[in-house]
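Support request, please re-run this one:
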Amino acid sequence: MSPDNNDQIQVYRLARLRTELERQDCAGAVFADAINVRYATGSRNMQVWTLRNPARYVFVATAGPVVMFEFSGCAHLLEGLSAIDEVRNSTGCFYFTAGPNLVERAQRWAAELAELVSRHGGGNTRLAVDRINPEGHAALRAEGITVLDGQSIAEHARCIKSPDEIAAQRHALTVVEAAFDSMQAELSPGISENQIWARLNQTNAELGGEYIETRLLSSGPRTNPWYQEAGKREIENGDLVAVDADLIGPGGFFADISRTFLCGDAKPSGAQRDLYALAHEQVHHNLDLLRAGTTFSEFSRKSWTMPLPYRQNRYMSLIHGAGLCGEYPYIPYPEDFDAKGYDGRIEANMTLCVESYIGAADAREGVKLEQLVKVNEVGPPTPLSDYPFDSRLLGD
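Re-run finished. Output below.
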């Protein structure tokens, strides 16, 4: 257990959550998503396991206390956390621990939460919930509770970062930078993708990070199409090696940049340099467009136009938010906007990942690049990492 012991961050985060709850006219919220529990309380406990098992959750009153429902036997892990007013044992409202008693367990779970709503809601019975199964939803409704979506409330709260959060996110990115240095130092013909990816995981653990959300590292022909995770393939001299960090570093902050390296002492081919130049151009063109006040649809419409041969294998998004994980907002390519997009406005102090993947459908390799930046009140965004791009592939 590694609490986020920055009281200023927690004061800021609770204020953000309560502003959103008030805006949605909610008496409070119940957060069981491990990321949202972390955001609301500054605590973590068995973080990866609780990402899929809602074994701990928190009630946040819009005007009232923060009541943490902790996994049995773990209350001592919350000592010293100023955001939490009360600690209770959680009621496991999921099948693994409840089994065939899930309906009865859900009723107990809902009754305790309904009592908190009654006591602190001032007659308001609207409760935001981020993760809930059918049994839990039915049990809350039986208690007279109107259930609203809590995930949207949490995502909108999380999307604007405080100066302390931005500083912490910068620190998390130094872990990625150290890991990338280590990976490049060991990158030589004959080493496997798994061995190189292990350096990312090891460095994160050594420097106080927590876990990695994906294993997105591939080499040579496995770089195209994207989304092939690290495997046993031995990397060859002259191969491209592409990695997307997707790292949850110290303090639970998402440190997400992507780079593509060249293995060995071979000179890059013309095709490799062309791919890299296009990806580099896309990232920097879109960075130059990124301004506070721009709508998502406007940004998508004005974004770098990808040449036709590469469109089939384009990445899932142009931009996505980054905080304690990949988060709101999500801005897709213009050709995908009607089907996958939604509108909104880019705001100052969002921290956003600007993405590029370039790989033709009939080509051997592809290039993945990504920058994490802070949106400023005026002017262009500020990169939160200055980790260099590959000079050999850029032709510098």
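The chain has 14 helices and 17 strands. The two ends are 45 Å apart (CA to CA).
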